[in-house]
Amino acid sequence: MSTAAPEPHRPPSGAAPVGAAPVGPDRTLVERNGIDVIAESERTAAPHQLFWPWFAANVSVFGMSYGAWTLGFGISFVQAVIVSIIGIVVSFLLCGLIAIAGKRGSVPTMVLSRAAFGVHGQKVPGIVSWLTSIGWETMLAISAVLATATVFELLGLAHGTTVLVIAAVAIAALIVGASVLGYHTIMRMQSMLTWATGAFTILFMILVIPHIDLGAVMSMENGTVQQTVGALVMVMTGFGLGWINIAADWSRYQRRSTSDGAIVAWNTIGGSAAPIILVTFGLLLAGSDADFAAQVGDDPIGALATLLPLWALIPFWIVAVLTLVSGAVLGIYSSGLTLLSLGVNIPRPAAAAIDGIILTLGTVWVVFFAQSFIAPFQSFLITLGVPLASWAGILIADILSRRADYDEQALFDARGRYGSIDWTSIGTMAVASLVGWGLVVNSFAGEASWNNWQGYLLEPLGLGRWNAADGFWEGDWAYSNLGVLLSLVLSFLVTLVLRRGSIRRQEEGALGRGEGRRG
């Protein structure tokens, strides 16, 4: 890996050349910035503003569905509450650590990751990140479409194929429209949605309280340690780890003087506050009614709608769709940035439009052809969750090891201090992913058979056994999905040890000149 100082080159479009007067702030309706360095004059955001995008994207009633999925691991209500709180807070705390890099480097997450993987080597985790973002936003759009169909049917309005098609197109248009407008519009939209959706979500919770049976909830028996670990991994993957690849996209407009602690705190608070309440409430509902818990798998939002009186369905539907759209907007905005970081040379709005087309096609496929919602969703999460966890471990270790701000120009120059490919990081991610995939299993072997190749290390290590006759894994650790946590921790530790010297050599030039030093 090259550690030489970067050669002079033209900064990316929209970036202020080093030593030049900063350009004026971007006040146009459509954000002009893509993956370029944010000019100092535009870095005016305050730390508390990070609360809005994270809270608005995670206040969705969709979060209540995780109550049913968490209890599905066979654990008790108390265990599920503890697992949910730990999993949600820790996973968003990891997002906060990644967000530190946005403030230090003024560019999107996947460009900052070039410091750890190399300018061209970053394309490997970049592809994983792009697929993850596309998948998340598609799943949120699917939930919104299914909720629309269910509510219309419950109200006795038109329903069926025509409604599904119109809903899919309209929801995709909302998501893409906001994403094309960009950062400033999204930040304003998220702050407004927070108040409106938060208030209606509280109303929904009040209306369904009569469906809670505390006796049934508290009578649930405790699960094993292995089942508890499996639920923890699912919660972490479904919440913070599902957003971790875009965490720095929203902090790159922060002032350089902002403390790292404030960045981490506001990301963690914004992301965790709503899900903790929503998942706990979802646990109460799912633990009270086994039939309801089963319905959540096919149509999460629609199942929740069946608990409401008719007069509340329209407000519920509006809020459910808006909150799901809110989360999808963050995903498609960032997936567009990731697409640009992979070398696709198009304007940022065009990248958002391309991802919007993919989102629409994916939504149509799942709504019209997939037999189950939860099966492809869970299989998708675990499969991409393993390499994404490895990437996160590598980048977090890289961020915590640095003493200086990033050389922003070198992030775009394969001849610069970050080099073309960092084989240590690539190798770490590859090995950690292979080990991780060997320790996770496809919980939906029938519905998502394309994913049955995982779990190949369980039998050799004595952690599980494949029952070919019945088509499922046996053993206490088989469904604990240890591979995700192991991939994260292993990559973090290996990077701390093996890349420390490389990071110091990268920083020697800047530290020698006294530039970018942090106290």
Q: How is this structure best described in words?
A:
With 519 residues, the chain is an all-alpha fold. The protein has a domain at 43-376: Hydantoin permease (Orthogonal Bundle), CATH 1.10.4160. The chain is 62% helix and 1% strand. The chain has 20 helices and two strands. The chain has helices spanning 51-58, 65-71, 77-105, 109-112, 114-117, 123-154, 161-181, 183-208, 214-218, 225-238, 240-243, 260-288, 290-296, 300-305, 313-341, 348-369, 374-401, 423-438, 482-498, 500-512, and strands spanning 465-467, 472-474. The protein starts with 50 loop residues before the first helix and ends in a 7-residue tail after the last helix.
Summarize the structure.
With 519 residues, this protein is mostly helical. Helices cover 62% and strands 1% of the residues.
Q: How are the secondary structure elements laid out?
A:
Layout: H1 51-58, H2 65-71, H3 77-105, H4 109-112, H5 114-117, H6 123-154, H7 161-181, H8 183-208, H9 214-218, H10 225-238, H11 240-243, H12 260-288, H13 290-296, H14 300-305, H15 313-341, H16 348-369, H17 374-401, H18 423-438, E1 465-467, E2 472-474, H19 482-498, H20 500-512
Antiparallel strand pairs: 1-2
Helix pairs in contact: 1-8, 1-12, 1-15, 2-10, 2-12, 2-13, 3-10, 3-12, 3-17, 6-7, 6-15, 6-16, 6-17, 7-15, 7-16, 8-15, 12-13, 15-16, 17-18, 17-19, 18-19
